[in-house]
Specification:
Elements lengths: L6 H17 L12 H12 L7 H5 L3 E3 L6 E12 L5 E11 L3 E3 L1 H12 L2 E2 L1 H16 L3 E10 H4 L10 E8 H4 L1 H11 L2
Parallel strand pairs: 2-5
Antiparallel strand pairs: 1-4, 2-3, 3-6, 6-7
């Protein structure tokens, strides 16, 4: 069992990778490629492990009663994901802010929730919304804001090949959706 996949499933995925390599014109018996199909299968299992995880298990009870914080911010949570359109990597940073409604969450759990959604075939817009929604739902927060900035290899190494382009997505829930002042405060806090 590797990252939630059985050995049989990994073998099947490796077989498909071997076929792809052959179709591309490679000799899968050459020294550098003999173990590549299985290595690729294990890598794919790792980078898509979010499909086989559970948010409640990740949070593991790390929600605590707390009154008084105006805003909690964790910025620059790095992530790695795969574009669902080309199965090429995109990566970047997510910053999360929330206004507690009597509950806070262990800070590392925010990073783990980012990975939970990033470690699957994804689009940046959905990733940003999913992170925002899970935090709003699990904490019953008064407001949540999530900003994601990412580089997409599907734009950099193929297609338009624009090396300097990055993409920013923003999602808000609750008080952040109705308050430009709160959004401004959040953006000022993550700017330094």
């Amino acid at each position: 069992m590797q990252n939630g996949l059985s050995d049989e499933t990994l073998e099947r995925i490796a077989g498909h990778y071997a076929e792809i390599l052959k179709l591309l014109g490679e000799d899968i018996t050459r020294e550098g490629l003999v173990k590549t199909p299985m290595r690729a299968a294990k890598a794919m299992a790792y980078v898509t492990r979010g499909y086989r995880q559970d948010a409640d298990t990740i949070i593991n009870g790390a929600i605590f009663t707390h009154e008084g914080s105006k805003m909690v911010i964790v910025k620059d949570i790095e992530f790695y994901s795969l574009c669902e359109h080309h199965i090429l990597p995109f990566m970047g940073k997510i910053s999360v802010g929330y206004i507690p409604n009597g509950k806070t969450i262990g800070l590392s759990k925010l990073a783990r929730l980012v990975d939970f959604y990033a470690r699957r075939l994804q689009v940046q817009e959905r990733l940003t919304a999913q992170v925002c929604d899970i935090i709003a739902a699990k904490l019953d927060a008064k407001g949540v804001i999530v900003v994601c900035k990412a580089d997409h290899l599907c734009m950099k190494m193929r297609g338009v090949e624009k090396q300097l382009a990055d993409t920013v997505t923003i999602e808000t829930r609750g008080l952040f959706a109705d308050s430009p002042e709160l959004c401004h405060e959040f953006h000022n806090a993550i700017a330094y």
